[in-house]
Inverse folding.
């Protein structure tokens, strides 16, 4: 059996993630075994969406994180890795300068990827293309800290793919432009008109948490009324009450509210009841890409 150790880094608007996996390739089965997973809520989006750039403090935090990740990957004998940055770094006026500095100080090359590539990574990692029915239209919705990606699959083919500057950190920073929200709603209306009925495949840490809070089984969908009730319950609580009553971390107790708002908006406009949550992220997608590219 061949064993390879791969690593993935996701530099998001809300958090920075490191995933290290051992890939065990047998004659008939390839097993992806998670060995290390770290998540640090640096929230680059707080700077970028308010000031247009990454400030010195956040830049130093990010540099320290990347230096730490570099040491951890070496300690785990990682043979190959990829680091990707998403919405906040895309929008930051000094994004490329920060990337260059981190490369010098941590020896980690960071790629700033598009919203489309981000969504494709997550979708492919979940193997969702393999379980799609030909007679069902699917709306893939990935809600992140800085952006929301929409992809429509009809007859197992991608027919719509668009990224919007609407995300949880952007919303709590009051940095979502009215025109962007209007564009988002209009696109959803158009998607409903052309592809209804639809089923949602949802991605993002907040919908994953909602799925867990609602005590759903792995493959069991969340239904619209459940999300609505959870949202109303959480929205009535203070930030501290959410942490105490639902055991939410400090970095989750605020952003889960706008995330659920986005999913409810999608369901309302597209008349969707079932939300499937595969619980995969950008880091999972990177690991899968690294492995299959090397074959």
């Amino acid at each position: 059996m061949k064993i390879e150790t791969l690593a993935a880094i996701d530099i998001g608007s809300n958090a920075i993630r490191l995933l290290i996996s051992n890939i065990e390739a047998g004659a008939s089965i390839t097993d992806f075994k998670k060995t290390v997973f770290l998540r640090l809520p640096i929230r680059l989006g707080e700077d970028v969406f308010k000031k247009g750039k990454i400030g010195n403090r956040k830049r130093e935090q990010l540099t320290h994180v990347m230096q730490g990740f570099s040491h951890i990957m070496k300690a785990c004998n990682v043979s190959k890795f990829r680091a990707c940055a998403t919405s906040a770094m895309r929008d930051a006026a000094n994004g490329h300068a920060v990337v260059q500095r981190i490369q010098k100080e941590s020896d980690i090359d960071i790629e700033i990827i598009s919203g489309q590539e981000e969504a494709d990574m997550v979708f492919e990692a979940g193997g969702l293309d393999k379980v799609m029915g030909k007679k069902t239209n699917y709306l893939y919705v990935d809600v992140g800290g800085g952006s929301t990606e929409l992809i429509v699959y009809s007859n197992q083919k991608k027919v719509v793919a668009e990224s919007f500057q609407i995300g949880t950190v952007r919303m709590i920073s009051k940095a979502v432009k009215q025109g962007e929200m209007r564009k988002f709603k209009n696109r959803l209306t158009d998607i409903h008109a052309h592809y209804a009925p639809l089923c949602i495949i949802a991605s993002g840490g907040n919908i994953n948490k909602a799925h867990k809070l609602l005590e759903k089984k792995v493959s069991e969908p969340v239904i619209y009324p459940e999300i609505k009730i959870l949202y109303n319950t959480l929205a009535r609580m203070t930030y501290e009450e959410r942490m105490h009553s639902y055991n939410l971390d400090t970095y989750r107790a605020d952003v889960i509210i706008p995330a659920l708002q986005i999913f409810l908006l999608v369901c309302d406009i597209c008349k969707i009841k079932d939300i499937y949550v595969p619980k995969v992220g950008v880091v999972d997608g990177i690991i899968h890409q690294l492995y299959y590219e090397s074959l």
About this structure: The mean pLDDT is 93. The two ends are 15 Å apart (CA to CA).
